[in-house]
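A brief tutorial aside. Many learners find it easier to grasp structure tokens once they have seen a single protein encoded end to end. The record that follows does exactly this for CopG family transcriptional regulator. Read the sequence first, then the structure, and try to relate runs of similar tokens to stretches of the chain.
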Amino acid sequence: MSSYPLQLPEELIQEVRQLAAASQIPLEQWLIAAITQQLEVERSLSRLRQASQVADYERFDQILARVPDIEPMLGDEL
């Protein structure tokens, strides 16, 4: 495991400490979980961007055109 000196604004570290305490986990574990979560978000966005670059939007439009234009079922309205 590596270490990295991290300087955080006092307000931010206080809030993070409170969240970690409320979750009953050590501060370091909370920070690792937060960083891991953000990495997953970035990986997902990267995969979506890659998929959008190779997507066949013409075929997508053809598929959507087959969907009937009807009212939603009761309870499915927006």
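Self-check: The chain has one domain: 11-65. If you spotted this yourself, you are ready for the next section.
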